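User
Please review the sequence:
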Amino acid sequence: MIRSRPRPAARYGAAFAAAVMVLTGCSSGVPVPRDTSAVGASGSAPSPDPLTWSACGKNLECATIKVPQEYTEPDGAQIPLALMRHRATDAGNRIGSLVFNPGGPGVPATEALRNLPKTAGTPGTFSPAVLARFDIIAMDPRGVGGSQAVRCLTDEQRADAAETAFDPAVPGGKPLPRLLTDAAAFTDGCVEHQSKGFLASLSTDNVARDIDRVRAALGEDRITYYGLSYGTVVGPMYATLFPHRVRQMVLDAPVDTNQWFGDSLPLQHDVALASERTLNAWFETCRTEGTAVCPFGAGDPQAAFDALIDRLEAKPLRIAPVKGVTPGGRLDGAMALEATRALAGDQNTWPLLTSALLAAQDGNGAPLYTLWSSVTVSPFPVPTAMFETHTAVRCADWRTPTGIAAHKAAARKAVTEARRVGTRAAYSTLNCARWPAPNKDRVTKPLTGAGAPPALVVAGRLDPVTPHHWAETMTRTLDSAVLLTREGVGHGSYGTNRCVDSAVDAALIHGTHPADGTVCKTDKPATTRPLVFPDR
């Protein structure tokens, strides 16, 4: 059943115009009303020129489109955006263009699209049926990837940001004066490398307007959209600003958009709690399986883990270099904690985590060190190289307190309620607290998507980044949406679960949805079972 709730006009704008959209499996010939919903943009940019595509890989084409840096100044500075297209493999039955955002913020969509054939079994992997019926369009958002990626740090500063060899008992991993110094160096570096006007323009509402420029340049009346993680902020923004340009929309691992545009400290606290829950799920599974299956900790994995972290912090393990694998180094407690946090967030990587912890317990830190070197350093799952872009986008969107007292209180709460993981959330928004390029006209109203077709919202029960209650809130906030829940641990569901894959494919291709509240089962998590990816 589709939820469709009336909204007070004074707060939410026009009522849901269901009669405008025809939910079919192909582009409709119904005339599209003139869009007047470009909130926050006075003036209009001239229509974009048709795109010029050139081959850039197997069944891939690349192009560039220029968009206004500020839509209130359509004739002012322009930003070149990198585009990539994967042509529909069944051209005779092509439905249209499907735009996707793989999240971050900061993940280049073009890179994700190029790597699709190599990432089967990972979230956001499109099925052959979807690849057959749609041109998949990847747009690197402004400030990301090939679209003038944000740079704020030197190579040396980047290396230091990735190095987590600090006492994990200290909120944030470093003493507060050092964190404040780092934040100053980061924000000063941002304005040295980019103009303040460019940094202020990186907000999600501008990304949504950019997508509509791409739609127009493609010659499409409507687009289909799939967004993962931060992509679930972009999607509702687009549906709110341009509701009659949406054909279908799927939002996977959704962010609470009300929190995203509000105070960032409670949002980061929710992320810390979600990550702590997935680590606790690994502990509980290991304990329940028994020592014959999960020997780590001899029946008490929590105590064994804490002891291992303390031991590694007191005396790190030296890691010999392995050609083509790791340059070597040392594994301390903070690095082991970070690697464990990341691997515990996906039940498919639990066997890797178990074997790496067992090895470290026996004095071999190489497996855990190698895994640490490949995981992430941000409270949202973005690789180190994307940290600057990730920070710049969220600072353009967030409303972060500037007073240090609020950050101190949030840090104390994080390390109290998320005892192991809270240290990495503490003080994680200091860069935004002193952000030098505030976005004064960003869109902050509730993203209801009024007038767009019903959205399919897909959420994992134990998601380490976007907790399930965020999906529930998104489903209530959108004027029309259905919620599909995947049991199990992991961030993102499409491409990892047959039940979810079937529902998402049906929504994207045919515009049909499961009953609201449908639950997809998943394989029972296990700490030592080999990885098994679903057949598509």
Q: What stands out?
A: The chain has 20 helices and 13 strands.
